[in-house]
Amino acid sequence: MSHRPIRLSTRRLARSGRGIPTRAEEMLWRALRDRRFSALKFRRQCPIGRYVADFVCFEARLIVELDGAPHDQPEQRAHDEARDRWFRDEGFRVLRFSNDLLLGGGADLVLAAILKTLAAHPSSDLC
């Protein structure tokens, strides 16, 4: 992973995102925060390079993104693909889930998918 300085505008964007989470973000954050999930430390709305990750676990090199309706638009999908490619190039795995899945009672499915990813591709940084 390269260590590039994070732009002030990216830091501000992350800070503002933490101040006004979506309902889906609040739900997932309740499960991930304070090492509640698999004893891993997750951070919310975290700047990484020129992007802001919804949730990141640096120990596991895992980013979890929650997507609302705007992510269904072709131009946004292309942006998300480029962003995910950049994260992967930096050594992260990226999981994307729709807000609708989480809000529709699929929180257990999301958490199970995260666990499955962690089990299938354990990070060498984990103890």
UniProtKB/TrEMBL annotation:
<protein>
    <submittedName>
        <fullName>Very-short-patch-repair endonuclease</fullName>
    </submittedName>
</protein>
<dbReference type="InterPro" id="IPR011335">
    <property type="entry name" value="Restrct_endonuc-II-like"/>
</dbReference>
<keyword id="KW-0378">Hydrolase</keyword>
<keyword id="KW-0540">Nuclease</keyword>
<dbReference type="InterPro" id="IPR007569">
    <property type="entry name" value="DUF559"/>
</dbReference>
<dbReference type="GO" id="GO:0004519">
    <property type="term" value="F:endonuclease activity"/>
</dbReference>
<dbReference type="InterPro" id="IPR047216">
    <property type="entry name" value="Endonuclease_DUF559_bact"/>
</dbReference>
<dbReference type="Pfam" id="PF04480">
    <property type="entry name" value="DUF559"/>
</dbReference>
<feature type="domain" description="DUF559">
    <location>
        <begin position="12"/>
        <end position="118"/>
    </location>
</feature>
<keyword id="KW-0255">Endonuclease</keyword>
